[in-house]
Amino acid sequence: MRVTVLIISFVLMIASGVIAFTKGAIEPVVRNIVYIHVPASICSLVCFGGLFVFSIMYLIKKKPVFDYLGAASAEVAFVFATVLNITGMIFAKAEWGLWWTPSMRLISSAILWFLAAAYLILRSSFNEQGNKANLCAVFGIIAFVDVPFVYISARLMRDIHRPSFSFDSSWQSAALGLAIVATIMLASALIWMRADIEKLNKRLN
Amino acid sequence: MSNSINIIKAIFVKDIINELRSKQTFASMVVLSIIIAWIFRLASSGVESAMAAAVIMVSVVFSSILCCERSFVVEHDEGCIDGLLSASADRGNIYIGKLLFNVTMLCIFDCVMVPVVCVCFNLTPAGNLLKLIVILLLVNIGVSAVGTLLGSIVMSIKSRSSVLSILIMALIMPMMIPAISGLLMVFSAGADGGMFSAGQSFSEIAGMMAAYDAIFVTVCWLVFGFTVD
User: How far is B21 from chain A (nearest CA, A)?
Assistant: First the structure.
């Protein structure tokens, strides 16, 4: 099943890429990074949402599978937050001449990355299993509660980020839509696989 | 209700007496903040309200890490946490007792640290003293709310100091932005500060920080039981 999801996501990604580079190309060329940047942004938030839900489920049900899924969500959120920040920096350098500047959305995406990194560091710090799953679930919950505050407080900063992308043709919207769906499917498959690896790891130990 | 207040009071008084006897945490917090202020002063050219605001926030964050780590490490290393838990005290009350102790420690620390920073950077916030007190109090509550919970999370980890500093700093970022914006208002007498957008009123900033405090105190109080059981 997860292999099917993975294959579908790759097919959608290729379709999105073909549309983006033929009928939906944006000028100047660096702006085409939006087809990676926006899906990565949405996906990292979705994965954070997954971490929150799985953490609450673990604390209520105490089933190890929710702990594995939470850890996998945090890892995938970290990967997409990294992609989000790197593509954002490339875009910023090309458009504004700066790699990074303190502005609303740039701070928000940097803090998302910090939170995912902090969760992974906490998870890798425990020498013995003990209360590990409980403690990580608690941190997962408060990290997610932090996310809306990141967006609210960042409103205090001056913003040079584009408020939204206006597309000239429906091909561009279609390419972005396909990219978002494909990335979310890819993230789901990755979380699924990573959780299975964690389960096998536990069985081995 | 009175039982809860008694438990909170007992934990708070125990921690205060413990600190009064050793004075270890407070002394480290003050010395650290003086060193931070001194290093930043070397890099500045005189009256710099932006740098003073940054020094105050850096000092509060690092001192809160020392304070919050210590408040649970002592319990864990001496085995007192088992006693606290087996005394059938409500977990939430233990959290509130510890939180009150950490907020009190940070407030006393602010009384020493802020004059040192003002002297170092030739600042006179006398006209905006009330605003300064409000911001520092809200920062202390927010940082302590998160720090107290995280202190209990990392108490069984070997490299707890480094992990705690990463966790606290990642979580209090949203609090730092309005806090620094508010401090800039206090030190530059209402003038707009650099990268912050103009038009934010002090009450809006204080309201944002109060909302952060209220939500994090509530969430941390609710989930604290899971970290110690």
Answer: 32
Report pLDDT digits (tens) over B98-135.
999 999 999 999 999 999 988 888 887 777 889 899 99
| Residues in chain B within 8 Å Cβ distance of A106 | none
Q: Structure pTM?
A: 0.87
Residue B195 has pLDDT above 70, yes or no: no
Which of B160, B223, B227, B229 is best to mutate for the A interface (most A CBs within 10 A)?
B223
Tell me how many domains chain A contains.
1
CB pairs under 8 A between A and B: 105
Contacts B171 to A, Cβ<8 Å: 115, 118, 142-143, 146
Tell me the mean pLDDT in the region B7-21: 89
Question: What's the pLDDT score for residue A161?
Answer: 63
What are the extents of the domains in chain B?
A: 2-228
Q: How many CB atoms neighbour CB B48 within 10 A?
A: 20
Residue with the two structure tokens 């919970």 = B149
Using a CB-CB distance cutoff of 8 angstroms, which residues of chain B are in contact with residue A126? 156-157
Prediction ipTM score: 0.84
Listing DSSP states for chain B in one string gives -HHHHHHHHHHHHHHHHHHHHH-HHHHHHHHHHHHHHHHHHHHS-S--HHHHHHHHHHHHHHHHHHHHHHHHHHHHHTTHHHHHHHTT--HHHHHHHHHHHHHHHHHHHHHHHHHHHHHHTT--GGGGHHHHHHHHHHHHHHHHHHHHHHHHHHTT-TTHHHHHHHHHHHHHHHHHHHHHHHHHHHHTTT---TTBPTT--HHHHHHHHHHHHHHHHHHHHHHHHHHH-
- By CB atoms closer than 10 A (0-12, 13-18, 19+), residue A152 is middle
Nearest to B212 among A107, A121, A149 (CB): A149
Domain assignment of residue A149, given as a range: 2-204
- Taking only the tens place, the pLDDT of each residue in A45-88 is 999 999 999 999 999 998 999 999 999 999 999 999 999 999 98
* Residue B136 pLDDT: 94
Rounded to a whole number, what is the distance in Å from the CA of A122 to chain B's nearest CA?
7
Distance from CA of A140 to the nearest CA of B (A): 11
Is A108 strand, coil or helix? helix
Helix (H) or strand (E) holding A67: helix A64-96
In this prediction, residue B140 carries a pLDDT of 94
Model confidence at B216: pLDDT above 80: yes
Rounded CA-CA distance A185/A87 in Å is: 20
